[in-house]
Specification:
The protein has one helix and twelve strands; from the N terminus they run E-E-E-H-E-E-E-E-E-E-E-E-E. By secondary structure, the chain is mainly beta. Strands 1, 2, 3, 4, 10, 11 and 12 form a seven-stranded antiparallel beta sheet that branches. It has a five-stranded antiparallel beta sheet with strand order 5-6-9-8-7, with no helix packed on it. It starts with a strand and ends with a strand. The model has no long low-confidence stretch (mean pLDDT 91).
Amino acid sequence: MVSSVERRLATSVAEARSPFTGTSQIQDWGASWWEYQIEMAVTQGANARRLSAFFTALGGLRGRFLFPDPSIEVPIAVGNPYVTEAQSARTSTLQTAGWGIGLRAGDFFQLGSDTTTRLYQLTEDVTALGSEATLAFVPPLRTAVQFGVPIGLDAPSALLRLTAPVPTVIARADQHRFTISAREAL
């Protein structure tokens, strides 16, 4: 069980500031990804050992895992949305259909499954016209999306890779605490 989550969208934007005039030049390379700091709740006994084995089996940077972010609220009665128009990589909008009610800016959705899973956050409210709607989101698409791809709303997940070994703090009474640092596996 997760006790706290820190989620942030990292971007490949750099600043070059002149030491003489103080002016800045911003360089935006267009890439972005999710980074997480996850604190697990105190775990004991067999459950703690299973969790420890899971993190150990990832082999540090080698392994990947799906993380259904528990801080993301799952919308109710939104229909069965899907992509209605193929989109190329690096775009930040999708044409969709199959909506019951709309989503709000800040809501999350998922495209893909297993090793192709990507997590996205809406930047604008979604207003369905009939059952069709345009989604505006971050980060931009990493790969092209084809017609008919379902939009995952049930338990949006991020495909993560550890950025550091997972420390295990073991206290009295077999109490284990885990802290996970990870970023989106791209």
